[in-house]
Amino acid sequence: MTHFPYLNGQLHVENVPVARMAEEVGTPFYCYSTAAITDHYQAYVSALQDLDAKVYYSLKANSNQAVVATLARLGAGGDVVSLGEMYRALKAGIPADKIVFAGVGKTRDELAEALKAGIHQINVESESELDTLSEVAKSLGKQAVIALRINPDIDAKTHAKISTGKSENKFGIDIDHAAQIYSRAARLPGIRVAGISCHIGSQLTDLTPYRAAFSRIAELVTSLRRAGLPVERVDLGGGIGIAYRNEQTIDLKDYAAAVREIIAPLGCAIELEPGRSIVGNAGLLITRVINVKSGVSRKFVILDAAMNDLIRPTLYDAYHDIIPVMQPSNDDPVSRVDIVGPVCETGDRFAEQRAMSPLQAGDLVAICSAGAYGAVMASTYNTRLPPAEVLVKGDAFQVVRPRPTYDAIIGQDSVPSWL
Ligand SMILES: Cc1ncc(COP(=O)(O)O)c(C=O)c1O
Ligand SMILES: N[C@@H](CCCC[NH3+])C(=O)O
Q: Which parts of the sequence bind pyridoxal 5'-phosphate (predicted)?
């Protein structure tokens, strides 16, 4: 938490007191540290320095323009999963030749726009998508540079909802059919098959599944080359997990060592698509206690943030640390409380029976590790306003996405004249 210190008894983001931002911005809001984003990105760059490896930041984790621009300025490429994300990447300053487009269901329009923009690579996930892309490319007089995304049938040992590399998952091409489809791709008009891509899941905390996937990729590349097919690139996806509660996760140095041992000898250009490990622990969700309610069997701390702001606890039973903005003292009593939001669902709960120092209405708390898959998954459920987003750099902070007004949200609806 070096970028989120308690100074003079108050939580800060870099040098800015959280309470000051809360006064100016109102709650709830996400707050990101530029220094943390930079450190996490540079950790990749330095761990992989000796390898010909390029980082394509996965925008799905956090696609706020200020966050993407921070990474663009550091030289990162972008991994996008939709046309919307491609526009975001381009607008934030990531050039087209540093954009990779992955995703299991790209439309013809999306493929066409990606080709017109001249992006670095399209990761193709099925034989039928390959045929569509070939047609679209031919009709535009373009050549699509692709990597074939393979599904290595490996259990990433992560939450089932974010595991992507087992044969029963919708992603990628079965590794057993990959050679045949790769060879077909090499003969298709409008297609230049440049390599293989693979992403086995998100929030991986154990290196073993990566090592297994890397070995399968290496075997495939070797057999493709034996068949006379060139393979220039290998995209290893993202997925490295972060510590949400001091748990052991993958050390980048160990990850890099596995890449060095298993992938580097292939002599391919290496591509990575990290998301969470760059922004996850660079962001907090700041929220205020609305009320503390004592039930018969439980005490509930009701926040002004809810599942519509941060859905991870509801969707994946995910753990997020929750800390008070005013530093508690060591002799404060600790009691177990449920920390919940105001939405009309029992699942709208950030923590169950969590040991906390005393909280009362008006207190500010920070939900930690909220920089990835937080704001991007927010909704207006219960006609709640999505949270604002703030970026901090040193002493400076700025709202980088304001909280919309109710009129802006309700005004998107219309009542038909024939009603
Ligand atoms: C194809 C692809 N690449 C990269 C990522 C980024 O993953 P993470 O945020 O776990 O690093 C994802 C999401 O899991 C993905 O689906
Ligand atoms: N939304 C998920 C991660 C999804 C990864 C998408 N490829 C999470 O919060 O953990």
A: 239, 273-276, 373
* Domain closes at, from 251, 279, 307: 279
Of 316, 350, 376, the one to substitute when testing ligand 2's pocket (max ligand atoms within 8 A of C-beta) is 316
What ipTM describes this predicted complex?
0.99
Under a CB-based contact definition with an 8 Å cutoff, are residues 118 and 99 in contact? no
- pLDDT digit string (tens) for 311-365? 999 999 999 999 999 999 988 899 999 999 999 999 999 999 999 999 999 999 9
Contact 203 CB / ligand 2 (< 6 Å): yes
Interval 186-245: pLDDT, tens: 999 999 999 999 999 999 999 999 999 999 999 999 999 999 999 999 999 999 999 999
DSSP state of 393: E
In a domain, 1, yes or no: no
Say which CATH number the domain at 24 has: 2.40.37.10
State which ligand 1 atom lies nearest to the alpha carbon of 278.
11
Q: Is 93 annotated as a binding residue?
A: no
Can you give the CATH number for the domain in which 220 is found? 3.20.20.10
The reply to whether ligand 1 has any atom less than 6 angstroms from the CB of 276 is: yes
Q: How far apart are CA 149 and CA 404, in angstroms?
A: 38
| 300 contacts: CB under 8 Å, gap ≥ 6 | 292, 293, 294, 337, 338, 339, 340
* 170 and 292 belong to one structural domain: no
3-state secondary structure of 311: coil
Task: Name the residues annotated as catalytic.
Answer: 344
